[in-house]
Design brief:
Layout lengths: L1 H34 L6 H35 L5 H28 L7 H24 L3
Helix pairs in contact: 1-2, 1-3, 1-4, 2-3, 3-4
Bound molecules: protoporphyrin IX containing FE.
Length: 143
């Protein structure tokens, strides 16, 4: 029973991680498009803002569940090691990134965004690099 529950929790953890990342990858892409909207194109701007708002509300509980299930694995099944500490620090940076996306969304909603689409293209790549590092850490457990 114990072994099966561990595998179920890990499966749910991966499910929530993948779902959260769908939002972490797509929301900044919407920001790229919002930063390229021509002045006066209110219909396009409003459509993109509606999508971004719904996506942010959808991906927030996914992030919370991904982390909660990870903590259940860590604290419930005695995982340990340097890899887990570095992984958790990287996950903390992802939570910061998620929160910062919320701030950027509010800037766009208030019409006070000052960043250009190139900035958002680089910003969009950060979760890709974090995911690469986390997956190698958790699968190889190098330290
Ligand atoms: C504080 C948050 C998190 C904690 C404490 C945590 C902890 C863990 C633990 C203890 C495992 C089991 C490792 C094993 O069975 O060998 C695990 C599996 C995994 N975690 Fe997390 N995790 C967290 C968040 C994340 C995030 C945000 C990602 C993706 C970026 C992630 C990706 C993975 C992957 C891919 C596995 C499966 C590894 C395997 O089956 O070998 N985790 N996690």
């Amino acid at each position: 029973m114990e072994g099966t529950l561990l595998l179920v929790v890990k499966a749910l953890h991966l499910w929530m991680v993948v779902s959260w990342f769908a939002g972490l990858f797509y929301l900044p892409r919407i920001f790229v498009n919002l930063a390229m909207v021509e002045p006066g194109s209110d219909a396009e701007r409003d459509r993109l803002l509606l999508m971004a708002g719904k996506l942010y509300r959808f991906m927030t509980p996914l992030g919370i569940l991904a982390v909660a299930l990870g903590l259940w694995l860590w604290l419930g099944y005695g995982f340990s090691g340097g890899w887990l500490h570095v992984k958790t620090a990287l996950v903390a940076s992802l939570l910061g990134y998620h929160w910062f996306c919320g701030r950027i969304l509010r800037d766009f909603q208030a019409g006070r965004n000052a960043r250009g689409h190139v900035w958002f293209r680089w910003f969009n790549e950060l979760p890709v690099l974090v995911l690469l590092a986390v997956v190698f850490l958790v699968v190889l457990k190098p330290f």
